[in-house]
Design a protein that fits this description.
The chain is an alpha+beta fold. Helices cover about 45% and strands about 25% of the residues. It has helices at about 10-25, 25-35, 45-55, 60-90, 95-105, 110-115, 120-135, 140-145, and strands spanning about 145-160, 165-180, 195-205, 210-220. Strands 1-2-3-4 form a four-stranded antiparallel sheet. β3 (about 195-205) and β4 (about 210-220) form a beta hairpin. α1 packs across α2 (about 25-35), α2 packs across α3 and α4 runs antiparallel to α7.
């Protein structure tokens, strides 16, 4: 495939996820294979080109960037402290949910319906928001160094119930807002909200333990 323009990281990673399943590849092999199918030499070649095509804004001096990072970390910590208690105390009866799922586990349609009618989606949206605020691997900062997670919205979510475990697969949108003070009259694109796209696979047990089996995130095209 001949490339005309760089593809978004989220699109490439979705392609890699598909190849990983189809060909039983490692994560690195899948990323390389997806890159080749999209017209690049390998994943490293894609990253080098995307770095050029998606330039990242940088402050003028090292002192400026250090000050911005300190401010961002403070704001992220403040939001995380506000959101974490909401997640920990989220009103959802997992005992009732799992009891209902056990009674109807033979019907995939009913399992899907039970989960959709429960607060599980909102619970997971809060989980992904907190995960983005933590951003321990710096994945979001690689794309939006000056924005902070504001809202996560799940979509195209499917639920399965196997061996007393809820398996969830779907996609999510993540809205981020500019993380620093600025003149509200300034309409420069730098200050606008950013939108990112992610895909995930995870499991939840009766004790509310969430295990991420696969997850990626990147910008829309």
């Amino acid at each position: 495939m001949k490339k005309n323009s760089v593809v978004s990281p989220s699109f490439l990673k979705q392609k890699a996820r598909q190849l990983k399943k189809e060909k039983s590849l490692s994560q690195h092999q899948a990323l390389d294979e997806a890159s080749k199918q999209l017209g690049y030499t390998n994943y490293k070649n894609y990253l080098n080109i995307s770095e050029i095509d998606f330039p990242r804004p940088r402050p003028a001096t090292a002192a400026d960037i250090h000050a911005l990072w300190l401010d961002k970390q403070k704001e992220m910590t403040k939001r995380l402290y506000a959101a974490q208690p909401l997640f920990d105390n989220f009103e959802i009866s997992f005992q009732d949910l799992f009891s209902s799922l056990k009674e109807n586990k033979k019907s995939k349609t009913t399992v899907q319906s039970i989960c959709e009618e429960s607060p599980l989606r909102e619970y997971l949206e809060l989980y992904f928001l907190i995960d983005a605020l933590r951003d321990e691997e710096g994945e979001i900062d690689d794309y939006t160094p000056y924005h902070i997670a504001k809202k996560a919205t799940l979509k195209n979510v499917s639920y399965k119930f196997k061996k007393d475990i809820i398996h969830v697969e779907g996609e999510y949108d993540l809205i981020l807002e500019f993380g620093f003070g600025y003149d509200k009259g300034d309409k420069h694109p730098t200050f606008e909200d950013e939108e990112m796209f992610g895909a995930f696979e995870l499991t939840i047990d009766k004790d509310k333990n969430i295990v991420i089996d696969d997850q990626d995130i990147g910008h829309y095209l």
